[in-house]
């Protein structure tokens, strides 16, 4: 008799060259003495590769049990579920990549990202890794998942590390902070008391956000570019052009306008910042202005 054992439920063909008979995993059948070839009925089963055929010879009274295990040849499946970015403070930031890895049979042994262990959890199928960076920009991440059968899958993603840029400044203080790093303005922000508005020398602020600024001495016009936004402002004019549309700098107070103080061009801070896509917050307790820009 012959019995075929396998690591999955499968069917096999017994052939003596003239006759064939089908036998299933775990089944035992009685066959006549002779030489037989035992061949898996299907080359692949659920992503597993069948073993090679085996030839056996049976004599009178022989009883043989054969092990014919299928091999895992399918690499794990990698998924990236989220990318979380930290703030960027004083030349330091980080982003965390989270994901899953699953294997159809042998199971995932480990996951790496850029050659580092990504802490794969076999119970939850999850992995996670954090990268420390010293600047904003694009970072390639190569993820590899290894299963216990030796198969490897590779997935590459490109992370754009672009957390918010945070500026903090105070009226009367030439120092300001960009992501916690000290910078210096040409002159301090000034609160124009009759307007109740703050004006600033804008170049250092715009450049800290990644924008550019130009000056037309003939028109006495300042042009600011940041991302998809362009603003034109004129000294002494209470209206500005934002992306081709003329707007009041302050709808509730038409006296608010760019001015020159001590030979420095000073622009209304809130209008410029918000027109560039920033949020502006004022803390009366510390007299601190916080500008937050979600860079792209």
Helix content: under 10%
Over the alpha carbons, how many angstroms does the gyration radius reach?
Answer: 35 Å
Q: N- to C-terminal separation?
A: 72 Å
Which geometry do the CA atoms define?
rod-shaped
> Biggest sheet, open or closed, and with what strands and sense?
5 strands, antiparallel
Overall mean pLDDT stands at: 94
* Separate helix tally: 2
Q: Strand order of the main beta sheet, please?
A: 20-19-18-31-30
Strand content: over 45%
Poorly predicted tracts of residues: none
Q: Tell how many strands the DSSP assignment holds.
A: 31
Structural class: mainly beta
Architecture overview:
It is a single chain. It contains two helices and 31 strands. With 296 residues, it is mainly beta. The protein has a five-stranded antiparallel β-sheet. A hairpin with a 2-residue loop joins strand 19 and strand 20 (181-184). The protein is rod-shaped, with a radius of gyration of 35 Å.
